[in-house]
From TrEMBL:
Domain of life of the native organism: Bacteria
Pfam families from the UniProt entry: PhoX
Entries under PANTHER family matching the protein: DUF839 DOMAIN-CONTAINING PROTEIN (PTHR35399:SF2), SLR8030 PROTEIN (PTHR35399)
Record-linked InterPro entries: PhoX, TAT_signal
Protein name: PhoX family protein
Length: 594
């Protein structure tokens, strides 16, 4: 009998060393398996995956590409089963199709890509003896939503002239969701999905608003505009306005039309993480993942109904349509002159300060001079510019601690910080040419999520702990794992923060980490797993007995193709590389990290 490794409760595992192995590496004493892969059939009638004979029709009934956010919801009526919801952020055609020509994609390839985007709902069954989960194919709740499924725009900007197109004179009916990155799970049993880098699907932009959102002035890389004119801004100028929203899906109602919630604003939504105020109103925190972009929250004016009746549920599906949208402005408490961009701690020993939530719009009322409420919702970035919001180092996922209420925001990196003509270092973003990112901890005033002010401090300044410009909440740095580019965040049942990374700039693979946020081990960061070649870690879920991660874009390395893959994951050499969901559990059947 070997003694359990040291650590905070929930984090008692032997850390995985940084590595470049082409596999998912888990701690000693843990097992893993693939829950579901790209292309596995989930709907009735969908065929088995055959990469050499793939069709759009097949893909529309199969698990999509590049799984990102994951949510597991209870399925109380069916013992041992849960509902898995997954985002399929984007497609990587060169790794999907043999002989793919970027210059001349075929219609079938483009339509397969449309069907490989979007969301999946798939019921999964627990194995009694392990942490394994297996997909229940053809379950009545299983569902695919793609780039061509119907979505409804709701809330204060729905129907606006800015959202009408030649195909939809009502400005309320959109085909498709695109680039769903991270998301959140609501207390009323729905899931939220951020539409992130939607700009890449649209061609031929010229307006200042489209340019502020990064839509290109020429052809797109995927060339969808040649197959559907709505992707050509010159022909359909308002179509891009119908992407960049937070989608709300009701996974328990397979007939429901998912909603795009305009009250939550339009930007490159990384995620959307809800919590409730003391009087039951939902608050949703949201990052805009772009260098020098902003951090937001939405506060509903309506209280969640907890009765559980059909009418209560229908009411709860309107909570995110009425309220106030805010953007964050942060002020450091140390003199600005102490921030020279090197990341050196200020004299008071902490990167910290206070902040205000600046209201942008409430229902039909704009709080931004010179912009209507509809303009605030559709061009939210411009509203943030006007009110002087704080330019952050790429705000990604966010998670409030269920124990303390403090909110953790991953700021993934910003290599442009301090460049000529760009904002320089400040107390919340203290490093120029920031390659490794940081995690900010925010405490709402009076612990009220609906409040208009907050205190903040940096919890982690990521990188190699040997680098003096790193910080692990004051924990001794010789006892922590290196980490770079924090992206998705989640809490475990013990109140530890789990962090997945995207783009590790330390020369090793991305991975998943756990860190205590309270007590004397606060800041003790430990690596739990690492990714195969080219992959990013997404969608972490940490349950008592199981950790779930989405292995996104395995093998995505410059020059790789289907014929010349850069990874053999998950099925070994000679088999096509497939983004997949992985479950990890303890071999002895006990809880994770105890
Ligand atoms: Fe899709 Fe910001 O990660
Ligand atoms: Ca300070
Ligand atoms: Ca992400
Ligand atoms: Ca999260």
């Amino acid at each position: 009998h070997t003694p359990a490794p040291d650590g905070a409760r929930g984090l008692r595992f032997t850390p995985v060393a940084p590595n470049v192995a082409d596999q998912v590496t888990v701690p000693a004493g843990y097992s893993q398996h693939v829950v579901i892969r790209w292309g596995e059939p989930i709907l009735r009638g969908a065929p088995a995956f055959d990469p050499d004979r793939q069709t759009a029709k097949a893909q529309a009934g199969q698990f999509g590409y590049n799984n990102d956010f994951l949510s597991l919801l209870p399925l109380k009526s069916e013992r041992g089963r849960q509902v898995l919801v997954a985002n399929h952020e984007y497609t990587d055609e060169i790794l999907m199709f043999k002989g793919y020509s970027a210059a001349a994609p075929t219609r079938e390839q483009v339509e397969i890509a449309w069907a490989a985007h979007g969301l999946s709902v798939v019921v999964v069954e627990e194995d009694r003896g392990s942490g394994k989960l297996t997909a229940v194919t053809r379950h009545q709740l299983n569902r695919r939503l793609t780039a061509t499924s119907e979505f409804r725009l709701t809330g204060p900007a729905a129907g606006s002239a800015l959202l009408r197109t030649s195909a939809d004179r009502t400005g309320t009916k959109v085909l498709g969701t695109l680039n769903n990155c991270a998301g959140g799970t609501t207390p009323w049993g729905t899931t939220l999905h951020g539409e992130e880098n939607f700009n890449q699907y649209f061609a031929n932009a010229s307006s200042t608003t489209d340019l502020r959102y990064g839509i290109g002035t020429g052809a797109t890389e995927r060339k969808w505009e040649l197959f559907d004119k709505r992707f050509d801004v010159k022909q359909e100028p308002n179509e891009p306005h119908r992407f960049g929203w937070v989608v709300e899906l009701d996974p328990y109602d397979p007939e429901s039309t998912p909603r795009k919630r305009t009250a939550l604003g339009r930007f490159k939504h990384e995620a959307a993480q809800p919590r409730l105020t003391a009087d039951g109103r939902p608050v949703v925190y949201m990052g805009d993942d772009e260098r020098f972009d902003y951090f937001y929250k939405f506060v509903s004016s309506k209280r969640m109904r907890k009765g559980g009746s059909r009418a209560d549920h229908a009411y709860n599906l309107t909570l995110l349509d009425e309220g106030t949208l805010y953007v964050a402005k942060l002020t450091g408490d140390s003199p600005a002159g102490e921030f020279d961009g090197t990341g050196k701690l200020p004299a008071d020993g902490e990167f910290d300060g206070s902040g205000v939530w600046i209201p942008l719009a409430t229902g039909d009322v704009s709080h931004v001079p010179g912009m209507t409420a509809e303009e605030v919702y559709v061009f939210t970035r411009l509203a943030g510019d006007k009110v002087g919001a704080t330019k952050m180092d790429r705000p990604e996922d966010v998670e409030p601690s269920p124990r303390t209420g403090r909110v953790y925001i991953a700021l993934t990196n910003n290599t442009d910080r301090g460049k000529a003509g760009k904002a320089g270092a400040d107390e919340a973003n203290p490093r120029n040419a920031n390659k490794h990112g940081q995690i900010l901890e925010l405490a709402e005033n009076w612990d009220d999520p609906a409040g208009d002010g907050f205190a903040w401090r940096l919890f982690l300044v990521a990188g190699d702990p040997k680098d003096p410009a790193t910080y692990f909440a004051g924990f001794p740095k010789d006892k922590v794992s290196p980490i770079s580019c924090p992206d998705n965040v989640a809490f475990d049942p013990h109140g530890n923060l789990w962090i997945s990374t995207d783009g590790n700039a330390l020369g090793t693979h991305d991975g998943l980490f756990g860190v205590a946020t309270q007590g004397e081990r606060r800041g003790e960061l430990k690596q739990f797993l690492t990714m195969p070649n080219g992959a990013e870690t997404c969608g972490p879920i940490v349950q008592d007995r199981r950790v779930l991660v989405a292995v996104q874009h395995p093998g995505e390395i410059d020059g790789a193709t289907v014929e010349k893959p850069a990874s053999a994951w998950p099925d070994g050499p000679g088999r096509i590389v497939r983004p997949s969901v992985v479950a990890v559990w303890r071999k002895d059947g006990r809880d994770i990290g105890v």
